[in-house]
Amino acid sequence: MPKRALFIEEFTRLGGGQIAFVNVYNALKERFNTISLYTDRDHPRLPPLHFDKVIEGGYSYSEDDPIYKVGFRILRERRRLSKVKEEFTFNNHPNVFVYNATLNFVHENFLTPFMDEHGNLKKKFMVYALKASKLYKVYDRANIVVAGEYSKSVVNKSLSILGVKPKRIAVVNLPVEQPRDVDLEGKEGLVLLFGRINREKRLEVGLEVARRSTQKFIIAGSVNRGDETYLEFLKAHAPPNVNIIPNPTIEEKDALFRKASVFLQTKLLEHYGLAVAEAVSYGLVPIVPKVGGPWVDIVMEGKYGLGYSRLEDIPALITQAVHSPLSIRKEIFESRERFSFSKFKESINKEVDAVI
User: Fold this and answer.
1) What pLDDT sits at residue 122?
2) SS3 letters for the chain?
3) Is 353 exposed, middle or buried (0-12, 13-18, 19+ CB in 10 A)?
4) Cβ within 8 Å of residue 110, ≥6 positions away
5) With contact defined as beta carbons under 8 Å apart, do 19 and 103 qualify?
6) Among 7, 20, 60, 72, which is most exposed with the fewest C-beta within 10 angstroms?
7) One digit per residue, pLDDT tens: the chain, 356 residues?
8) CB neighbours of 335 closer than 8 A, spacing ≥ 6?
9) Is the Cα torsion angle 331, 333, 334, 339 positive or negative in sign?
10) CA–CA separation, 115 and 118 (whole Å)
11) Do you know which SUPFAM superfamilies this protein is assigned to (predicted)?
């Protein structure tokens, strides 16, 4: 059994992938005598985890970086990683750190940079060039883990387009906190949008919905390097019933989820949607697009929340969600056991057992 491990992830920013990394670390750390980390150059968002060694690569990232710069850095890191060896390796960002680890957790499909918000390929020449480069052929026969059935489908499709045939793609639900003493009856008629404040999240849709609603809205989440201009855009165009909270503390986040009644997801084709699972764990009624991981894997196509196909439908759905009977909110809340850490720990350890 391997006793020395190397984990790979970048911490230039904070998002669902980095949160997933922390959960994987906590679920697997007891298996190994030593754990090293290969990460980016500056790692400003690295959480306080214990690593016996931290290997700093040259990778850096800003949300407004042009794609050619990101591509150059990916190639540079591939050369550096080719010299890295360990008994067990875990890669939490295999589309950026091109390294076929013992286990690879893929959080978005390999063609995301070349797709529009509706999932259509918009830069086909670059996709053909990427396939011809065989950059991702390293993942032939790879052991891959994804966060849901929708993610499995789109990741598998992207690899197929690139001519890559992984050994297996397993599904493991990501965990979220299970807060205590949630008052389901004391919630306010507040609509919450939570996650990275980033253009790809389409938060301007939330502003338009707010203009058509009488409810109060809060947009909150981390602002990573390169997203400052988008934050200012949202502030400049927000109607009076919208409050924007950048970089809330853990305590502020907890308070927002406890008092909100409705969670609105605006990004189309989200691969999983960790914030939607968090909303379920606090008893909010999620409203999500009828496409993507939140609809398929979290809301379960309407079993634990509501879905929309058009922006025009959202205000009426918000009214419906705010006035949902307590029994419906309770059913959503109790379904959060799907996202418990104990279930995740058991599942991810089974995947490790299957590949070592």
Assistant:
1) 82
2) CCCEEEEECCCCCCCHHHHHHHHHHHHHHHHCCEEEEEECCCCCCCCCCCCCEEEECCCCCCCCCCHHHHHHHHHHHHHHHCCCCCCEEEECCCCCCCCCCCEEECCCCCCHHHECCCCCECCHHHHHHHHHHCHHHHHCCCEEEECCHHHHHHHHHHHHHCCCCCCEEEECCCCCCCCCCCCCCCCCCEEEEECCCCHHHCHHHHHHHHHCCCCEEEEEECCCCCCHHHHHHHHHHCCCCEEEEECCCHHHHHHHHHHCCEEECCCCCCCCCHHHHHHHHCCCEEEEECCCHHHHHHCCCCCCCEEECCHHHHHHHHHHHHCCCHHHHHHHHHHHHHHCHHHHHHHHHHHHHHHC
3) exposed
4) 95, 136, 155, 158, 159, 162, 164
5) no
6) 72
7) 889 999 999 999 888 899 999 999 999 999 999 999 999 999 999 999 999 999 999 998 887 888 888 888 899 999 999 888 899 999 999 999 999 999 999 999 999 888 877 778 887 888 999 999 999 999 999 999 999 999 999 999 999 999 999 999 999 999 999 999 999 999 999 999 999 999 999 999 999 999 999 999 999 999 998 999 999 999 999 999 999 999 999 999 999 999 999 999 999 989 999 999 999 999 999 999 999 999 999 999 999 999 999 999 999 999 999 999 999 999 999 999 999 999 999 999 999 999 99
8) 280, 304
9) positive
10) 8
11) UDP-Glycosyltransferase/glycogen phosphorylase (SSF53756)
Q: How far is CA 260 from the centre of its chain?
A: 21
Q: Does residue 155 contact residue 106 with C-beta atoms inside 8 Å?
A: yes
17 is written with which tokens? 């992938």
Mind listing the domains of the chain with CATH numbers? Answer: 4-175+340-355 (3.40.50.2000), 190-339 (3.40.50.2000)
